[in-house]
Each structure stands twice: as C-alpha cells, then as structure tokens.
Sequence to fold (165 residues):
Amino acid sequence: GNSDFPSNFVTVSKWNKKRLTYAVLNQNKQLKGRTNSIMAQAFRYWAAVSGLSFRRVGRKSKRDMDIRFAPKDHGDGFPFDGPGGVLAHAFFPQDGRIHFDADERWTDKSNSGINLKIVAVHEFGHALGLDHTSDIRAVMYPFYQGYNPKFRLGTDDIKGIQSLY
Ligand code: TQI
Ligand code: CA
Ligand code: ZN
Ligand code: ZN
Fold:
C-alpha cells in the first residue's frame, strides 16, 4: 500500500483538546508503588510524538480518563476472564475508561508475566482513538509481543496519532 498513509484504522472519535488528565484509581498489588510511574511512562510515548499532554490528578478531581485494575465482572458489561485471555480494554474517546485485568501477573522489566507498560501503551492508543493495525512493528498490532527493553512506538503508531491530533 501507500507507505505515507497509516494502516491504523483511525476512528472518527478523538479528544477535542490537547491537554488530558487521568486518575489511577487503584494500584496493581504486584507492582505496588510502581503503577503510577509505569502509567506516566506509557503516556510519555504518545506525548512525545503528538501535541498531547497527560497529567495525573487525584481521584476526587474532574478528569478525562480513569485507569483501574479490576477482575471478572466489574460493572461495564465487558467482564474479564481471569489469568490469560483478555488482558485489558479501553473505551474509545471521549469515554476515558481504561481497565486492566486484575487477575493477570503484571510485571515491569521482566521476561515473565505480562509487561504492564506495553499493554498500557496499547490501551492508551485505543483511549486516544486508534484502532488495530496490520503493521507487525506497531504497538497497535493486536498481538502481545512480550517484554522488550528497547520498546518504542512504530512508524505506523506515530502516523496514526499524528493523523488524529
Ligand atoms: N484486549 C483487547 C485489545 O485491547 C480488547 C479488544 C479486542 C479491542 N478487540 C478490540 C479493543 C477491538 C479495540 C478494538 O486489543 S487484549 C494486546 C495485544 C490486549 C491485547 O487484552 O486482548 C494488548 C490488550 F496487542 F498484545 F494483543 C493489550 Cl498490547
Ligand atoms: Ca484475563
Ligand atoms: Zn472494563
Ligand atoms: Zn487492542
């Protein structure tokens, strides 16, 4: 195809502002105090290549996005399924809900378990309006590729977010 055109299937839904806020409603038990920092790192990938900025606010503040770890049926009609299978899901803009399956073994900088940062980058892509891509080098490619210390966004991800914002 035309390599100047992102193969991301970009949806019509997007945020109508560049400065977005989010709250982390609970922490992952295994990653304790690292959850907030991992989420901030994951947002930084998108901020670095778009005009967007992301600021964490407290759970009592008004905000655009909510991040939460929840198991099984958690009240939105899309129950998680225990260890394995579905890892996380995010609603498209301007909903703002981003949920991680609390029953996964979330890890940071480890070859075992599921890397929270990479899954978060993928889910934030959805929460910003990106759909899946067929480009295997992109984080929006719908297969988990495992922990990679040199992880970065693909060209397709960058073109996708830049075509939206
Ligand atoms: N969760 C799916 C996902 O985020 C949820 C989903 C299925 C979905 N079909 C969709 C979301 C269509 C938007 C549009 O893709 S998941 C991966 C990856 C998942 C999968 O748990 O399967 C990642 C979450 F890419 F590795 F397969 C994160 Cl990174
Ligand atoms: Ca699961
Ligand atoms: Zn949910
Ligand atoms: Zn996805």
Summary: The longest helix spans residues 35-49. Residues 19-160 form a domain with the Collagenase (Catalytic Domain) fold (CATH 3.40.390.10). The mean pLDDT is 93.
